[in-house]
Amino acid sequence: TTISDGIAEIVLDHPPVNAFDAAGWERLAAIVREAGDNPNVNVILLSAAGRGFCAGVDVKELARDSSLITRVNRGCYDTFGAIYDCAVPVISAVHGYCLGGGIGIAGASDLVLASEDATFGLPEIDRGAMGGATHALRMFGMQRARHMLLTGEALSAQEGHRLGGVLAVVPREKLRDAALELAGKVASKSPRAVKLAKQALNGIELLDLEQSYRFEQGFTLELYTSPDSQEARDAFAEKREAKFPKS
User: Fold this and answer.
1) Lower Cβ count inside 10 Å, N or C end of the chain?
2) pLDDT value, residue 247
3) Are strands 155-156 and 119-121 parallel, antiparallel or unpaired?
4) Partner residues linked to 120 by β-bridges
5) Helix H or strand E segment including 3
6) Is the peptide bond before 39 cis (omega within 30 degrees of 0)?
7) pLDDT-derived band of residue 246, with 50, 70 and 90 as boundaries?
């Protein structure tokens, strides 16, 4: 995290794919809360190093210890809530892949910029899990969110922009500069006005993001502890087609 001219830039940098374990999600939530409470910060910019923005949850950790699912769920909930409820606006600058928990990060943000190579997806249905539909719905609307969750297919940054979930699409090499320029515009405004504006915007949303996501997480846990979920995870690890019993 670096702070300059009222902008706190938080860079996700956890090779190889920016997928976070339980402790990583807990730490990210704490970092966002700390930056939002800093009187020298008027806006937060979330960006990432490496090939993509965020690949979501570290499935390898859960493969080693499936009991961590509740801790991971809590860490994701706390992170997305820290972003959405942050006292100052949060801007996400997305490049490469934005998957699963990455959708939660971007979808909880106030503004999203994306590079031309960015893609947004919810591949959980092929991993024996669920999650992110609440935030995909907030970004892309009902039909596209349902399609993403039920098929696991991703959408492009350009399509995300057309649907209104992405403010602008820029060349990869210009993403950070464009994000900093946008953050600078927000940071230049009255800090009190910006904070009140964010509270007002959250208050007039028809979708209660946190209650909706908590409801969704109940089904996430139910699926994760089922035989179908284990078969999906095994098939993914073994690079084969999953075989599910007919119900």
Assistant:
1) C
2) 57
3) antiparallel
4) 98, 155
5) strand 2-4
6) no
7) low
Percent composition of the chain: helix, strand, coil (DSSP 3-state, to 5):
55, 15, 30
Q: Of the candidates 43, 77, 57, which has an alpha carbon nearest to the alpha carbon of residue 14? A: 57
H or E element, residue 227? helix 227-238
Maximum CA extent, the chain: 59
Closest CA to 79 of 45, 113, 116, 104: 104
User: Poorest-confidence range of 97-101, 190-194, 201-205, 212-216?
Assistant: 212-216
Q: How many CA atoms lie within 13 A of 139 on its CB side?
A: 36
Residue (of 110, 146, 238, 180) closest to 155 by Cα position: 146
What does the alpha-carbon distance between residue 44 and residue 8 come to, in Å, rounded to a whole number?
5
Take residue 233 and report the two structure tokens written for it: 């995870």
Q: Is the pLDDT of residue 230 over 90?
A: no
Which two three-digit tokens encode residue 79? 């992170």
Lowest mean pLDDT among 120-124, 179-183, 208-212: 208-212
